[in-house]
Amino acid sequence: MNALETLQHYFNYHAFQTGQRAVIDDLNEGHDVLLTLPTGAGKSICYQVPALMNDGLTLVVTPLLSLMEDQVRHLKAHGIKRVAALNSFNTTTERQHVLKNLKLLKILYISPELLQQDWILKRLKQLSVRFFVVDEAHCISQWGHEFRPDYMKLESVLQSLKHPTLLLVTATLTADVKRDIYQHFSSRQIKEHLHMIDRDNISFIVEKCSSNYEKDRYIVDCLSTYHVPTIIYFSSKKETERVSHYLKEHVPTHRIAYYHGDLENNERMLIQQQFLSGELDVICATSAFGMGVNKKDVRLVMHYHLPTQIESFVQEVGRAGRDHLHSVSISLVTEHDRLITERLIEGEMIEENVLLQLFRLLDQQTHLDLALFSDTHQLNEIHRRYLQNYLENHDIITDNKTINHHKLTDQFKDTWVRTVTERQQFKRKKLFELLLALSDDRCIRRSIYQPFQHDINKDRFGCCSVCGFRLAQFEPIQLQTSIENLTWEDKLNRRIRPYTEV
Amino acid sequence: MFRYLMIYLLKTINSNRSPAAIYHILTGKKSSQTIQDLHLFQLHTYYRLLPNLSRQAFDYDVDQMVNEGLMEWLNAKDYRLTDKAWDYLSTYKDTCDEAHNFERPIDHQSKEIFTKRFYLTIQTFTQRVMDDTGFIPLIDDITIQAFVKQYYHLHKHALRDWLEQCYEQLYDVLKTYPDIRRHIYLDRLSTANHNGQSLQQLVDRYHVTEADILLTLALIERTLFIRSQQHQTLLSDLLPADNQPKIYERLMTRSARKTHQLVIKGYKIEDLIQLRQLKRGTIEDHLVEICMLDDHFKLDDYVEEEKIAIIESYLSKRHTQKLAELKRTLPEEMTYLDLRLVFAHYQKRLHQ
Ligand SMILES: [Zn+2]
């Protein structure tokens, strides 16, 4: 089967979307590729089609567990059974099942931390890996908005496999990130497939509010006018719950729920599925919501709180209007938002004095107990992994624990401290960049897409509030849903005998 | 609903334990303490009734009870039920009866497998009957998925027949429940055109606690399970084959289970200590646990017959629960292990 036949046979699409075909051809010819596509533009087709056309295994490294599971389910639903996912949430039985059938697989999704485990790597080395796909490739870069320490080891993993072709995919490639990616994979010849990621069907509005109460009222007014699939983003889990309850009370016609990382997996999935299948209209969510969620008709994305940088903003806004119909992004900003977001950044970072404490410990001891150190300084899992990887990459610790004192030079320490402080400043700069983009003196669309591309598509339905777009110009098709109100007999009938309803 | 069950259980353990003991019983904790509590207070039927109940949700209900004046804390661990709680029990006895009227314990592991199979079958069959193949299975467990896949192939030409019968079965079961409970159950189901509601959504919609929701689901699931076990019905096919270890084995702690294997082969206590490389005290604890759980435990392998006779005759005259009293009163050659084993054995037969 050629590429087009493969697409038609397995995925029921008639033709490729923009950019897909060229990437597939390059991969089939064994060229390494760096690909940027806007979210929802079908990046997975770019490696799934070659994976099915060629012999050998395609390894897809992705940090997004939900995306992993969704992709596997999605492929299986299309009759492609030789796929599996390995991540730290597998049960033992599941993992054994996958490992036993490793030879039969065409596509294996794997989380970066599992890829580092020797016993798994050993199994993979025995196989012929045809394609090595790095999803969310910006995570390699320390300057990326979602830096993942585990990604720092991908190059050495790649080296140990039998020369697979490399595909790097991201939706948010800035100049800094690109430089880091090239440095990381300096031994490879990479071909670029960089596409415009701006969305010409989304209009942007920035609304200045003086308090949370004003934000709440604004949303109530907005939703009362627009009954459309809506996502509202928050930086606080508590606030998703509070506002969701407030909205239920004040906009009783809409079906509303909240979503954040503290909910049980199963519960999260139910909410996500309800939203996907149109049983929910409005979701109040943290940034945990949306990865791998492909709902075409989201009309409205609101930001109750801003994220910490433009990349996240672009990603979240990009969940609107995948069907290319008119959609709107509304950012509600107050004066003290900046403070809230700055505090968020501080939580994400390792502080300088923690490093100094670590140095003191390294100087004094022969072995390092990083788990204990992390507990004493209340570091989270990401911080701990970051420290461990950094120490291992610089040969400061070997066999997990033993400290190489002769490598522990002043220069090493200074460089590390400088890296950390620089990164902190960098984060501040990123935040400032976002706040600036959303301040009201320049075209908002142009400002937020500028870090990713030079030019910008012409807007199709109205540009932004700076360029004169007003919410009143937004005339979407409204939902006609209501909250289910049935007797238990009717409910039972509808659930178990759906065929009698039509 | 859950409120009634809580008061009932707190009454039963009668301030001998902290409320946490109830939490461990309901979620099915595998600890010696919990297993002993099951026997001491005769609460086998509640073991692992709500395996997914979170500690947070449980504590929330306890706090609510204190706020409503149903119980009081005497100190950090001890509590007391108030008169209001006793009134509550008698007021709701008729309407909440099913919550505490279990006839016998069920094999909870079979029940959990059965229930998952049932939910996934309903989802699969309703989706397929509507020609929708691309749905996301609500149960992730691949062993359950494999079963349902096979089951689907058996029924794929008669899905409507299966669903019609299933409808009848559910109708019969649900009609016996209060309206709010059957609505909760039906809202939680994932079928074609309807994704199940999350616990939080149900809490908000019906103004009850999370524990209430879980209890409602558990009771209806339990009824379906027992019906399918007792009568050959449509859903009996979903019961797991009976090739698993006996119920008592699964109640045992892992370590005790190892000792149990040796006890079955007839090893004596000195051998057990040697073979298991454990302290005498630990082995003795295991023996007591095994004695309580295994109906085929041979008491006279471990205690001489004369001793058994003496202790049992004492127990039948004095209804004491205090080992120290036995030790004080009976002849000195009776060891604590003798007393504990005979006592456990006696208790077990008393409740059979
Ligand atoms: Zn503009």
From TrEMBL, chain A:
One of its GO terms (molecular function) is nucleic acid binding. Residues 214-367 form the Helicase C-terminal domain. The lineage of its organism: Bacteria, Bacillati, Bacillota, Bacilli, Bacillales. It holds the Pfam family Helicase_C. This is ATP-dependent DNA helicase RecQ. GO terms for biological process: DNA recombination; DNA repair. It comes from the Bacteria. Residues 24-191 form the Helicase ATP-binding domain. It comes from Halolactibacillus miurensis. Keywords: ATP-binding, Helicase, Hydrolase, Nucleotide-binding. Signal peptide: none annotated. GO terms for cellular component: bacterial nucleoid; cytoplasm; replisome. The keyword Transmembrane helix does not apply.
TrEMBL record, chain B:
Pfam families: HTH_40. InterPro entries: Helicase_HTH. Residues 255-342 form the Helicase Helix-turn-helix domain. This is Uncharacterized protein YpbB. It comes from Halolactibacillus miurensis.
